[in-house]
Predict the structure.
Amino acid sequence: MYKVLVVEDEIQIAKMYQFKLEASGFDVQCAFNGINGLKAATKFKPDLIMLDLMMPLMDGAEMLKKLRSKKWGASIKVIMLTNISRDEAPQELGLLNVERYIVKAHYTPSQVVDIVNDVLGIKKQKVN
């Protein structure tokens, strides 16, 4: 079972993604700021992190920088999931190995689950 960490400061949004991902067979944990997200990533060792950019205490860019500085965190797949356009995002994100950059308002939760499957290389079963 793949493990996904959702780091999102809006609790309802985090729980919505958790619900959709768990319904699709993922083991999911949530953190509501970058400090707790980094702690959770250290303990949970997720296969993928869905990371919000704008959060209190430690934003997503800072968390990602700290994650990538650790040997164990250098290869974790990360999807930036935010409402900030790519043009407004910090330039350094391009150097921190992000698999996808998703503007939340442009995708349904089901589409986000499809993207998670794609990033993790999970093929969907075709129904006849």
In short: Helices lie at 11-23, 34-44, 60-68, 109-120. The longest strand covers residues 77-82.
